[in-house]
């Protein structure tokens, strides 16, 4: 088997198209998924030679893939031919939460205003996948679908610049979204958000997304929600919107 002409399928590990550029992207996707799913723990080494052997490719696409993941904020570079999976500090998580709390309100409000029939159908499909995974107890699949839900809402928002900004932060925010434990609760809140978007109820969706972000705490410090200028009164806003 040639390690320079075959490509890696990111999900299954099978080798497919001979396109070199695609190979680098697929290697990046495979490593990205492993990081986001917790298969590769924070702080663990990413050695080019070992990754190339594991994925059945040459070291060149692995090197290119690691550069992409460094740019995305999931990998920390080290000298020579290895890197480590990024260890997010409490300060990193706080920064992500602050940025996300601002972006999500705008995103969901725009989605409620601008949603299309096709876009709503795509969001429904993602939500159904999340609900089914939550019911079956497949936590990993439910978390991935939950992150997909937020990304699909960004598509519904119909704002190219917002989509571009989201793309820059996509991997880090997706990592953040995959940290929650309450898969049933998150799925139920996503159902409520979907209903508000479908009804074009901008006021309700605004209150629901604030409460949603406040309910899923990603910091050890339980006062984070109360101190956040956007999330501090989220519960009261939900009650008034209802």
Automatic annotation (TrEMBL):
Keyword Ribosomal protein listed: no
Organism: Nocardioides ginsengisoli
One Pfam family linked to the record: FCD
Domain HTH gntR-type: 21-88
Protein name: GntR family transcriptional regulator
Keyword terms of this UniProt record: DNA-binding, Transcription, Transcription regulation
Listed SUPFAM superfamilies: GntR ligand-binding domain-like (SSF48008), Winged helix' DNA-binding domain (SSF46785)
Cited InterPro entries: GntR_C (IPR011711), TF_FadR/GntR_C (IPR008920), Tscrpt_reg_HTH_GntR (IPR000524), WH-like_DNA-bd_sf (IPR036388), WH_DNA-bd_sf (IPR036390)
Span list, region Disordered: 1-21
Coiled coil regions, renumbered to chain: none
Record CDD domains: WHTH_GntR (cd07377)
Record-linked PROSITE patterns: HTH_GNTR
